[in-house]
Every structure is written in structure tokens, then in C-alpha cells.
Amino acid sequence: MSLPLGFTASPADLLRTTPGFSLSEVATNAAPGFSGKKHDGAAALAVRAPILAQLQEQLFAESRFSGKRSILLVLQAMDTAGKGGIVGHVVGSVDPQGVQLKAFKAPTDEEKAHDFLWRIRPAVPSPGMFGVFDRSHYEDVLIHRVHGWADADELERRYTAINDFETELAAAGTTVVKVMLNVSPDEQLERLTARLHDPTKYWKYSPTDLDERGYWSDYMDAYQKMFEKTSTPTAPWYVVPADKKWYARLAVQEILIETLAGMNLQWPAAHFDVGHERARLKDA
Amino acid sequence: MSLPLGFTASPADLLRTTPGFSLSEVATNAAPGFSGKKHDGAAALAVRAPILAQLQEQLFAESRFSGKRSILLVLQAMDTAGKGGIVGHVVGSVDPQGVQLKAFKAPTDEEKAHDFLWRIRPAVPSPGMFGVFDRSHYEDVLIHRVHGWADADELERRYTAINDFETELAAAGTTVVKVMLNVSPDEQLERLTARLHDPTKYWKYSPTDLDERGYWSDYMDAYQKMFEKTSTPTAPWYVVPADKKWYARLAVQEILIETLAGMNLQWPAAHFDVGHERARLKDA
Questions:
Q1: Does residue A146 lie in a domain region?
Q2: What is the CA radius of gyration of chain B?
Q3: Owning domain of residue B34
Q4: Which of B128, B166, B189, B275 makes the best surface tag, with the fewest CB within 10 Å?
């Protein structure tokens, strides 16, 4: 599969975390592997959308004939980093019939009474589906670590449980793609400020956003630890620079395209006698 | 709200069924209220998409502050009529986060053991959501009537139960928009033939599609009866000519826009002190 116009290298290769990865050393405002500007990025996104859509349709079609494979995009980020934009502009370009989107909010009392994976398991994508987790089981090693809601032993248990869970998902046919949108505190400040000056965006703002912002460096530590503990060859983390929204969207689209292309999807063969059915149709 | 370029009258008004409506008297290849051609229709669809998207976002935003309203699009049609295209090209233009799509297949044994509405109720849209039923509880008065799986008394009971159910939905804040895509047998034949000559579409074809085609006039009778029994002022049926896919998409988009516009949606006011938060941000 050739790279889209403007890409000089595979963003999947450039952004996939490997042992030794350090969050504090990567730029949030870069556009790794892309030589173009914002308008080139928007153009490339539009050109590539039908490619992603076709791959998704092939995945969906396969499941109609006992195919068990699916894909799961896990999105984690600080507030305003652009998870919603990824959902709207990247996921939004594929057929909604093939998408299973789940936004994980603060857990309910019932969910809290169970192990942290209890509410996650029923939300994994069905065969053929393109699942998206907007926040996920990773909240249980991020906000929980930052606020000390889980102690060190419990965090270790969770990292292990997560890796086991994702290994199990892979074995059952689900390819897990984990994306952290990496935004800078300065860019977040600009976006929060913009929300506070646009009455059509007031509803997206909550005073608690500012409270969490106060824990920025603790969050970055928690992300770093999360990458170290849970970025595996089976289910790698991609850290996507997110100060430029157009780049983050393009990069996530490309990571999805590369991942799906690597699954060697094919249109299912006819499960009926084509000649016979054509003849029947003529008389119908 | 002004009509889009090319529209000479409101498709919602023209296509809404009223007492005396006769399915056999309406054209399947017409474009009621639209003076343009195919390319004008495609252009109008693209121009109107952001309007639908904004209305959906306002509906979603409202629910974040205890708003209870939602919308439910019910799609029914003969095979190949274009339900999938409506989902992909009309619903697909709004933010996936606000969409709750449910495709109803042949019921499972467990579902069959319950009353027909049992599997429907949990699938109704949550507050703020744009729900879509791809097939629905109406299968229970369509295919069931055609094949005699329900007798006359049972069908009467179901019509009544459906009207009660939809009245209840309306009272709880869900606006129900019911669309029947009206395709001709000739057009269906063309589309089935096309599927049998395109290996990327074999997976969409099933020999049973042809079997159901043999009951065409029985289906039309069942639809006619369904309109008579269940088209109510609260939850009207719209019969959308569907031989021209571009028109069907444009008309459904417009029906949705008109319906949402009629809900007088507003951006929620700030639920915090804007000045105070702006000041906090400056120090953050």
C-alpha cells in the first residue's frame, strides 16, 4: 500500500512506541513523516477516507461469512486533545453500520462495585466491527494513579490484567490499536480559552477540566508508565502529536489504514452459484 | 428555516402520509418538490449536511444538562431500496458520538420467546441521541403478515401495541420519524442484477432476496395496511420515492432537518460563571 501524497514515511512506524520511548522527549506540535502543510493534510485526509471506508467494508463483509476479525481503536488523551475530532473526522468517514462506539464516562456505582474490566468486556467489538473506545480501561491506570485511588500493588495488578485482556482479544481476532493524542499544556490552554469565548461551545466546558489540568505532570508520568507497562507488540501504543489537529487526524487515519491493510482483507467469494442466480433473476 | 437550493416545496409536507394515502398511487421514480437533477441533488445534500450535523449537536448538547429529548429514525423498505445508503450518506454526516444505530435482524430464539416489542424497547435512543432503526418492530406487521406468521387478531393487537409504544416514546421526549423507502420492482431487479455482476457486492446478495421478491404485492398490501394503522400525527410515516437514490437521501435529510428544526433547539447556556472561569484560565 503506497503512502498518501505528502507522507514521506509511515506514521504508524514513526509513532509506534518501542522500548525506551520517552513521552517527555517527543514534540506535540510536529507532523512526523508528513511534508505538507495544513491544507495538504486536509486534502490527504479526504483522499484517503474512501480507502479506510473500503477496508472497513471488507472487514464487515468478511464477518457475514463466519469471519471473526474486528478492530478496536482505543483513544486516550488529556481534555481538548481532540478525541472527538478523531471520532467525527476519521471514524465518521466509514459506514456507521460497521462502527461500534463506546464512550466511557466516570463509572456508575454498579460498575465501581466490579473489577475495572467488568464494564469494558461487553463493549468489545463484535466480529466485523470497527470498535472505538473514547477513554477506556486505561483510565484505571491514569486518573486512578494520578489521584492515588489505586495503590502501587493494585496498579501493577491492573497493568497485568490489561495485557492479559488484550492478549485474549488478539487471540479472539480483535486487532487493538491504542492511540494517545499528545497535546501540550499551552495548546490546551488555547483550546479551553476558545471554548470560553464561544457560546456554542460552553456546553463542552466544565470547571473541573481546569482542576485536572493542575495535575499535568502527574498525568504525563502516568502515561509514561502506561506506555512502559502496556505497549506490547500485539497491542502497541501510538503517541500522536496533537497540537495540529489536522495532523493528528491524518496520522490516526493512516495508522488505521496500515493496520487494516496488514490484515489482508478480501471481498468474500460468492456463497451461491452466480450463474444460477443470474438465470433466476432473469425470470424474476 | 429556508428550503435548500432546488427544493420548491417541503419534502416533509409532500411525503408525509395522511388519511386516504394510497401506496399504489404514488410514483417511485419521482422527486417531489425538487426541481433539480441528480448533480443538483448531490450538491444540495453536501450543502445541507452541516446543518443536520449542527442540529444533532444541539440535541446532544441539550442532553448534557438534563435535556431528555431524542430523535428516532425508523427505516423500512424492500431489499435494495437503499436503507444502507441513508445510513451511510445521511446519518453518516453527523457526529458518530451522537448516533445510536440498531439493525434488527431475524429474531433470536430468546427474542422470539418474548413479545415482539421486548427487543425493541432497550434499543430506543438515550436522551440527546439520534437513534436509527434499520428495520424495526414494523417487521412484525410486515413479513409476519405476508407469511401468515401472525393471524388477523394478533396483527390488530400489534398495531395497537405499536401506537401505544410510540405515544409513550413521544411522551418521554423521543420524536419518531418513520420512513418507508419506496422502490419499484423493476428498480430492485436492476440493483440485484448489478450485485450479481460485481464481485465486491456478492456478499450483499442472498438467494432468499429473490424469494421475498416473489411476494411483492403482498408486501405492498402489508405496507398499505401499516400506514393506515400506524401513521399518526405524533409518529407519521413518510413514503419516500427511492428509485432515484440521490433523491431519497436528500428527502430523508430534509425531513430530519425539518423535524429537528421544529424542536427549537438552542445551544445550552453556560452552567458556570464565564467571567470567573476566564479569569481562572489566565492563571492556569
A1: yes
A2: 20
A3: 11-283
A4: B275
